[in-house]
Amino acid sequence: MPHVQPLAPCSFVAAQPVATTGCVRVTQAGAQCGSVDAVLATRYAGVRKLRLNYELLGPSDAPVVLVAGGISAHRHVTATEADPTAGWAQGLLDAGRALDPTQVRVLAFDYIGADGSIDAPIDTADQADAVALLLDALGIGTLAAYVGYSYGALVGLQLAVRHPQRLRKLVAVSGVHQPHPYAAAWRALQRKAVALGRLQCADEQGLSLARQFAMLSYRTQEEFGERFNAPPEIHNGQVRVAAEDYLEAAGAKFVARVSPTAWLRLSESIDLHRVDPAQVGVPVSVIAVEGDRLVPMSDAVALIEGLGGRGRLRVLRSPYGHDAFLKETDRIDALLASELFGSQRPSRT
Question: What is the pLDDT of residue 176?
Fold first, then answer.
C-alpha cells in the first residue's frame, strides 16, 4: 500500500489508495495506462470504493502536468499506439505543442462517477481528493502544473485549495470559483429534460435533448449565424430549421458514450462547486473567453480579484464561446506555452 502523506486540512475527507490493479500496461516508451483501487469518503455519497482510471504519457524524468477537461472528458487525451483513436484533447498534445508528451509527462484520469456507478451528489472537492489519491499511488509528489478546462478547471481550483502542496501552478481555462446563476439555470433545464425522458422510458432521447440544449450554451450566436443562416424547410408538414441536423447529431454522439446517471451527477457537480479564491494556495492563470455564456468575463475578473497577487488573467475572443478550448487549438496552445513556461520549458527532474 502506498504511503499516504497528510492532506490539506478538510473536515469531511478521509481516504487512501488501496492498491494498484494489475491492469497497468506500458504501451510505448514512457506511456502507460492503468487503474488504482481506492477508498474515498465523499462529501455527499458516503465512503466509496472506487477505481481511478488513468493514462500517463511521456518520459519518466519529465515534469508531470495533469490535464483535465469537461464533464464528458476522460483519461484518453490523445492517440497512442495502444489506443489510436483521437483523444478529447487531440491536437493540443502534438509535437512542438506546450503539452508535447515527449517533453512533459501528461497525466489524465476519468472523473469519479463518470462510469455511472455513483447515483448520488458528487462534489468537485471529491474529484480533487481523488486526484491526490492517484498522485500518491503513482508516486508523484508534486505536479509541475495542472491544466483544467471547464469542469477540469473547477477540480483544479479545489485541488489548489485542498492540496496545494500537490501542484506548483494552475491554469484554469473557462472555469472559475462558482457557477453563474444563468449557467446553473441552463443545466437545471437540461436535467429536467433527462428526468422527463426517464418518466417516458426514453432515457436516451432525454439525454440527447439535454445535450442539444447544452450545445446552444457552449457556442455563440455569432457561430450559429455563420453556420446555419439558411431558410427553414418543411418536412412531412413540419418546419425544420437549419441547425437541427447539427444538434441531433451532437445528441446522438453524446448518448453513445455517456450514461444518463453519469451526466446528471456530474452536471449537478458543477452547480455544487464553490471555492473561496482567497484560500487558493498556488499561482493561477485564468484564461477566459469573451462571449462565453456559461462563464462570463465578470466571473473571471471576480476570481482574479479574489486571488490577489496570485492570479493572472488572459482573455481570448472566439466565436466558439465556452467550447473555444476544444476548437482554438493554436491560440490555446500559445497561451499555455506562455502561462506554463514563459520563454523556457522546465528542465526534467
Answer: 98
